[in-house]
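Protein in question quoted for reference:
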Amino acid sequence: MFSPPLASADQLLPLLRTPGFAVLDAASVRAQAGVDAAALAEITGDWDTLAPDHYLKDGGRYRLRRHASFIVQDDAVRAVPYRPHWQPLDYNALHGGMQRWFEPIVPATTERPEWQALLRWLARLADALRGAQPWYGEAHQFRIDTEGGIGRPTPEGAHRDGVDLVAVFLIGREAIKGGETRVFELDGPLGQRFTLREPWSLLLMDDTRVIHESTPIQPAVAGGHGHRDTLVVTLRAGGFLDPAD
């Protein structure tokens, strides 16, 4: 497994501008967001209660998830009425073009101060990149498991999400191999590959500059069972991605 190219706090914004992505270890995440390890550890129990993703077009049953939407402006986080996740086919050729009503992230999590601190910090980064404005955000809790032999974190392949900022937090890896992260230039040949292994380490991406994917996972031991948990947060200027009227 290739080690992630970890950045320091002062490198974060320059890297997001060029080449368009940066990786932080968990200690840097905690310091930047102003949260402690014990508080984050309390959130991780959520991943044992995720609901099946019934929208997988490849017929797989390897993905569980929950979803929430919110708006951050002037360091205030506001929940919005529950809404479906939607992407155009231009961004997700496999699952785009349909409204996907995933089970919501539980209020006991979205109301936690450390959860909201993470969202406020990400919005401040987006402000620094694009200018202060309301940020329309979506959060996705994912578990990819190997119960069927192979789990696919990104069955749609290398893609953009159609937003401004993408944050991928690794929550945990259990008894698996694979799950390599790959980030590529949007319009060029260069790319980088690495494996996130530390809980609450983070990949940040300027979604207008790069595309990304994660490789399939398999059990570490033949016949075994494992999983990979992530939290993906996206921020978009101007409004949520919604179907055209």
